[in-house]
Amino acid sequence: MRIVILGPPGAGKGTQAKRLAAELSIPHLSTGELLRRAVADQSELGQKAKSFMERGELLPDRLILDLIGEELRKKTYASGFLLDGFPRTAPQAEALESLLAERDWKIDIVPLLQVEDQELVRRLLGRARIEGRSDDTEEVIRRRLAVYNTQTRPLVDYYRQKNVLTEVHGQGTPDLVYDRLRLAVKATVA
Ligand code: AP5
Ligand code: MG
Q: From the candidates 18, 127, 143, 160, which is the catalytic residue?
């Protein structure tokens, strides 16, 4: 199964993706997590990524596409995956499509987690207090939301037109959201 989970910052992509990927026995690939690790390791990629991430801006598509292209070639992803945080722009979605087509693969389902802005901000500020992620300040959260709205939201229609989009109400407890997500995914595969 090949899944792309969509939703604004704080929608619960990471929280839900981890659980769904474990249940489906497929790897969870989060570009944000990959990049945060690269920043912590001070690798060449990390050094390039740091300032973009701290400002809440997206990295250049080229950089992300090189990263994902290399990652998806690994054997781990041969029988399915759950992508979280990628694609995030129209060029990334198109590049993913060609990358999959080369292998005769396609995306089976794109769950979109829907959460109101006020709740997104509340969650991310809450996480800032616990985890101290460097992009969880009020100013950067606002920027990330704006970037989502202009650069990533168009992918909702892109995937809707491909008949793979499924909307999932993302508010309520993580368990409740997971039940809805699980149902949506099962309904598609069945
Ligand atoms: P990324 O790491 O992808 O961040 P994001 O999209 O801003 O989303 P988050 O990870 O903050 O939120 P989430 O939806 O995963 O929610 P979570 O489960 O954590 O990207 C970070 C940066 O990397 C980007 O800004 C960019 O610079 C760069 N980047 C990454 N990918 C890129 C790409 N493809 N192209 C270019 N640049 C890229 O939940 C959030 C909080 O809410 C947590 O505290 C959680 O415990 C809590 N929570 C979750 N569910 C619930 C619930 N149901 N009720 C209450 N609280 C909840
Ligand atoms: Mg995340």
A: 127
13 is known as an active-site residue: yes
d(CA 99, CA 121): 34
pLDDT tens digits for 71-130? 999 999 999 999 999 999 999 999 999 999 999 999 999 999 999 999 999 999 999 999
Q: How many helices (H) and strands (E) does the chain have?
A: 9, 5
- Residue 72's nearest CA partner among 83, 62, 63, 61 is 83
Tokens of 165: 């989009």
Q: Tokens at residue 7, please?
A: 């939703």
Q: pLDDT for 156-174, tens place per residue?
A: 999 999 999 999 999 999 9
Q: What is the pLDDT of residue 190?
A: 65
Query: What is the distance between the alpha carbons of residues 5 and 124, in angstroms, rounded to a whole number?
Result: 18
Catalytic residue among 2, 13, 123, 180: 13
Contact 144 CB / ligand 1 (< 6 Å) = yes
Rounded alpha-carbon distances, angstroms, from residue 108 to 2, 7, 53, 82: 5, 17, 29, 10
Q: 3-class SS at 86?
A: coil
